Amino acid sequence: MARLGRITALLLLLLASCAQSELRHQLADLSPGDAGSGEKLFLQARDEAPPCASCHSIDGSQSLKAAPDLQGFAARAGSRVEGQSAQEYAFSSIVRPASYVVPGYANSMYANYDRQLADSDLADLIAYLLTL
Ligand code: HEC
After folding, report:
1. Residue 54's closest CA among 109, 1, 118, 11?
2. Which of 69, 95, 109 to mutate to test ligand 1, by most ligand atoms within 8 A of the CB atom?
């Protein structure tokens, strides 16, 4: 019986730590973003987080080879992952980049934006991405 109790306690601990690794942000919580502020954020770092533009070009030049160029992103975002709208895909690309890895690239996108960006930052970035 004591052993069962210990196993239950362990399972509860495990569950608690899984819950902690869930996303901080949910798309449904975001208000409409501002693409202009999103562009600024794309170009500048926020706190310790690297700027998106340190890895992504947006002019079709693919000048930064480590990450996909985002020119035309709005047009392809809705067909990247079956069942995900362009907005949903843009959101998960930022907060959970490993959930879908663009063919031909490594899973090397910075993975802490979910923790470091505010809801409004995410909304602004998504609004900006969907203008590209
Ligand atoms: C350290 C480099 C790096 C940084 C910084 C980075 N990314 Fe990425 N990003 C990648 C890589 C590599 C991929 C391709 C692999 C993947 O899909 O995860 C990617 C994929 C993406 C995609 C999917 C593109 C497509 O064509 O489907 C989007 C959208 C994106 N990033 C947006 C952003 C935004 C917005 C930021 C800033 C908040 C950012 N990235 C910061 C490296 C980076």
Report:
1. 109
2. 109
